[in-house]
Fold this protein.
Amino acid sequence: MKNSIWASAGALALAFLAAQGALAQDAKPVRGGILNYGVAGGPHTLDCHAGNSFAVLHHLGPHYSTLMKTDNRNYPNTIGDLAKSWTISPDHLTYTFKLHENVKFHDGTALTSEDVRASFQRIIDPPAGVVSAWRSMYADVKSVEAPDKDTVVFQMSAPNAGMMSIFGSPWACIYSAAKLKEDPKYPEKTVMGTGPFQLVEQVSGSHWTGKRFDGYFRPGLPYLDGFKAIALSSTALINALAGGQIDAEFRGVTPADRQRIQASRGANIRFEEAEGMGLFMVSFNTKVKPYDDIRVRRALTLAVDRWSGIEPMSRISTLKYVSSFQRPGAPDALPKAQLEKLPGFGRDIKAARAEARRLLAEAGVPNLKFTLINRGPDMPYAPFALYLIDQWRQIGVTVDQQVVDTANWAQRRVSGNFSVIVDVTGDWGEDPSFVMARFLSSDSSFNNPTGFSDPKIEQLFQAQKLEFDPAKRTQAVNALENYIVEQVFTMPVFRTVRLLPFATKVKNYPVVPVHNWLGDVSEIWLSP
Amino acid sequence: MTLGTMAASVRVPSRTKPTAWRKMMQFAATQPLGAAGLVTVLVMAIAGALAPYIAPYDPVAISFSDMLAPPSWEHPLGTDNFGRDILSRILYGARTAIVMGLVSALIGSTLGAILGVVSAYFGGVIDLLIQRAVDIFLSLPIIVLALVVVAMLGRNLVLGFDFNLILAISIPIVPQVARVVRSSALSIREMAYVDAARVAGYSTRRIIFRHMAPNLMAPYLIMLTAFIAQAILLEASLSFLGLGVTEPSPAWGLMLAGNAVDFYRQAPWMIIFPGLAISLAVFSFNLLGDSLRDWLDPKARLR
């Protein structure tokens, strides 16, 4: 096996060290300049609390601050953004945050704890007409209080080991309490936060520009005078990178695009990569025969040779890692030895396929035929499905692929109008409490489309959520992941790579796996 | 000389109809380009039919060790990004192209011809209604109309072919054939033998199908061959746009889409050969259609 996750993890570690070295070399930041970057899509909302697409944060991110944030230099740790310090009660039921002083909104008003309280309250208990896409994540928060102007207190109804990561959600933008009082829907119309950049102009379908906010609370930042996010189609975006019209793109490009851009830009472009958060899977509708039979589901996962396929797949698609539900490099990922014992992750594909044939025959469907529902955009959905179809063909399973557009795919997925469907996750963070939450039984997780229910999954999930000792929590998470992989209602297969292109003048941007969070633009600088 | 011996010695010129073979020879002699088109089409159809026996590889089998291999003795037309043999995929793709093209054109042209002759025969309000409907359909570009139909109908696999896709390709053909056939049928309607059939009390159905329709065979055949080419192109376009045949089925249009867009610089054979296959098929059917028109048109023959 040329490219195991472990080899990849090693390479990543080296790349990370090299990147750290590069960052160290770029230790003398230069102020000034405008960063031009492309975004393949416009924001579907101007309200972070209602957003769930990368295009939202790739525009709004530079304008807002959050209470906590992911540390992109020490990923996936959580560090303070507006929070200067914090304490957690021994029973993990009270979180107290002290805020930075002298934080100002772009309209010049001072930020107080009331702004933080009102913003979280809006997510947890949105007023009528306000959409909160992230409400369920804060289900364990009983109340949010602002006892003085610099202090915010969260009281929990139950402990949650992932709570600090959840407080660092990039979607939890902090809005002005005074403005929310006037109009709870103001963030849908006005972009006004405490972030490093102020909005200058928004031209829908064309561009979005921001300028340095001189009142930003972190001294000396941002380095850039401003930024311009240019709305482009995926093809135009690659052309713009190849032609040097834009300096960066923060979602990721394909290996084929990389070759093309590199050929055009030569030494003027560099690429940085990280394990991505996009996990490509297959979900089975366990309410439909024969997928209610675990033998059939197990046979279908056993047939897929993940280890031999990933290296060539990485040359033609953005899929680069064999992965279970947790990212291979994540702190709580399954150890290699444990992973390889799980169905579909073994090294002996001959034996696995023999077992798969036996299981199908035993289940009475030796010549199984089905339609695989796949999502429209080509990369990496098309190569992923083709690979699976070829793998299943080798155990005598005939698969017809039906490609539908994204809206149709989402609708079919949610309504259960499928037998077998290509499924994907793209989480914004690493904590198992939200990475694994979508695999809870279908009656507890609206995001599990398979109709599978098993109380043991809930028990295992709760066990990891209540475990605060890191080593013991990892064990609990592994037990949960093990159990879910063995039930095969959703079979994880491959994970994406996040491959980012930067003009060589763009400095100081550590690449992390999360693609829908823009990262800290305030620290980027341009070499003259 | 007796009458009997006279009868034996006089050879009366034969009045029998020329055989199909003779007709084909005649066609080849007078329309050599059309004959070349016909031969190419026949070769493609036979290659498609015999694909399981003559294709060197399984067209859907992935072989990463052969990924993006250039043309060689092993893979005469190279391989794609999944290591699939392009020659095998083109041979199997001929089945998709010919079946989809032929069936779609047959359905579309036949329905169009029926609509055209009915419109011409009845005239009046029926003609008006049919022709205005035809006008509406003709105002829409053929690809747009097919896109709408395929998006609305979804998929319906019959014998491995998407019947709804066939319908989507057929529907834009209907109004075009209806308009042409109507114009020919209008003059046939005024012929004495149609009047005679009417006077003899034959049913409308009999008059249309037994007396008028056979005399419309020439324009029908010409339209049919022309629309086979158009249907092949339409199927390729829809597959290219992701609305036609889906992977891993081998189809020429599909071979130009998807990952071919990403890899054509590295592996130009991924798009050159399927593109050539589409062009050759369309060109051959067009040659055949044009020659058939000239051959069946008595005025053209006099020229």
Observations:
- Residues 81 and 513 of chain A are 20 Å apart (CA to CA).
